[in-house]
Fold:
Amino acid sequence: MRNFTSVHDIEDLQSALQEASEIKKNRFGFTSSGSNKTLLMVFFNSSLRTRLSTQKAAMNLGMNTIVLDVNQGAWKLETQRGVVMDGDKSEHLLEAIPVMGCYCDIIGVRSFARFESKEEDYGETVLNQFIQYSGRPVFSMEAATRHPLQSFADLITIEEYKKTERPKVVMTWAPHPKALPQAVPNSFAEWINAAGYELVITHPEGYELDAAFTGNAVIEYDREKAFRGADFVYAKNWAAYTDPNYGKVISSDRRWTVDEHVMSLTSQAYFMHCLPVRRNMIVTDQVIESPQSIVLAEAANREISAQVVLKRLLSNT
Ligand code: AN0
Ligand code: CP
Structure:
């Protein structure tokens, strides 16, 4: 695997899931594959899980890791080509990226949608510049449109908990005070579709996602109808995708908070969320603390998804 930015970089999803399960049982079985190799993790945005789990996965493989928080201590970076750099940005990505490539063997990048331009976000301009100019294998640690390490961990978790061959997975929008990217829901939909599971997406009208990611998923505006018979409930907030509201919060309807009532309509569904989660906005204390909540199992599997991806990328270094 040369780069990892989406499910499309995984040739055979079943074999990747199989590899994940083997690595989980034997995570220190490959400590020589990364020896004398350096991982650079570049963060343009905050992180808890991605930072820790990816570093842990790299350590499991015997790699060294360097973390760069671009907004804390590095020069402010210009990302647009052709700009007269007379403002507060001291360095251009076009120099910074190949320089970063000099010091490492693999680069992970976290760069969220900025909601300044849909074209720029959905063109993945920052991530693609890393791919083009670093000279190294690059993987996404959540980019503008996708969060593949998260979705891979989500799918590993579903494999571990599913009670039927083809579970019904319901992804529900839930309220949040700030405008959040569509990366997590886009990516989750893409991976669930690739796994061939039943996917129902429910949200208030106006929160439709890009059909390039949701594919043949059923879009059901009636939340209670969507939840009926669900085996997994995946909650997430996202800002509007469709114009003219791209990047805006258009509803803060707290009736969409996942609570015990709506969970009672499901087939004893497991509750999932990528975290960080705002309690009593996205989900009530009762649901996230219930035995059906598998949010910690999901977070734990981030180490596993990262280890599979790094192990595959190392074969190209
Ligand atoms: C981010 C998001 O919604 O994309 C990261 C989630 C993994 N969440 C927040 O910024 C709260
Ligand atoms: N789920 C996830 O990616 O969390 P962080 O933003 O804390 O890395």
Notes: Residues 142, 180-181, 183-184, 274, 276 surround N-acetyl-L-norvaline (ligand 1) (CB under 6 Å).
